[in-house]
């Protein structure tokens, strides 16, 4: 059985699909240029076999069997696949946004999607721009490009999610918009390679013209592709309020699910996701974009960010979380006529660098998508052995004494983290901090430990767990015993405590203040 057939059979058994005579799938239609992840989404700033998500069945025929039979897509099985899709957001590293389509490179795309499939992805999301594809009638050559993209993705075992109307403000032409959308989507109405249609990227539900436009658009698209799930996404800035507004405004013209783009604080991801679920109910939600730019944070922070979001989504019961994006963008890759091209952070959200090398985040995504456990120990650099720039530890009150990665003392391995000659301020002791991968819930028991060694130590050096609520209000902390004054060998510092009422996140701080000597920390545990 082919890889495609294996994937199809798995989904068929999971969804109990009916089998119908093969009718010849409509040829794939016009592709559209993928939209830019708006600045709002990012605060300004194979394995050989892939799990199936496509609603398609291709059983191996027996000798007596007639033609191979294929299940007809239904709204229910497509939506079920959407809700568990392992989706990667995609533009080529050298041709972002509309340039993906105006400079279409099938060889580059195939190589990239091979890489995505090797991470465990089973779906790819691309955005189609009316301005590039031709409006209100899609150009034939762009329709061919989209068809080719769908075929390339299918060859790599990936379904496709289509997003329409990015970089769009033509809300006065609902009829033309409907005609264009139907022309793009109709060839895929019963094509199991395409899972869903997002009618606009990061829709603004506070725009009355946009709301009037989408109310007219939905019925026409629904009639053209009745078994294709329809959705809208909201930006990270619009957030939960946007989901509520969409649900309310479109009560008479309902969608099938809502798409939440999450770029908030990953330490409080569970609380934020649960707010989004409540705001969207009764619609199910997926997290259609999430990530952290390594232009504003370290590569280690990016990996930890995605690990926290994946784990929070799992606890919240959300089965589809889509990283933004596969690769960083090279200089000039984002069209200059887009405001996105002027935002440095937009170039560095990739799981891979622009030269094709993997960042630590790629390993986190593969771990999650291939069903393995993501742990704090595997992501948080708890022994300080990560290469420079790859650690998720962040400074706090560094102006009063910055910690440095040191190799003059280490309990195990080669490196530790060292404070020396520190001060203190009214707001606390200088420290380095990180947060667990496991989401925080009130009443949970937590354990932290670290080994510390001192030389001529004065002041206070300790470890502490600091608690915060969903609004980032500090709720208190639990601290270890301090490192002994003077000079001492490696001493184990521990904290055992329970998350207080209202806790949504916790940070582990390694602290040293008013210290005229030096203190080293190593071999941290957080569970």
Automatic annotation (TrEMBL):
Keywords associated with the record: Glycosidase, Hydrolase, Signal
Annotated ranges, domain Glycoside hydrolase family: 96-328
Bias-annotated ranges (Low complexity): 32-42, 51-65
Signal sequence annotation: 1-28
Key word Signal present: yes
GO molecular function per UniProt: hydrolase activity, hydrolyzing O-glycosyl compounds
GO biological process: polysaccharide catabolic process
Classification via Pfam families: Cellulase
Region (Disordered): 32-69
InterPro entries per the UniProt record, alphabetical: Galactose-bd-like_sf, GH, Glyco_hydro_5
Family affiliation: Belongs to the glycosyl hydrolase 5 (cellulase A) family.
Protein's name according to its UniProt entry: Glycosyl hydrolase
Originating species: Actinoplanes awajinensis subsp. mycoplanecinus
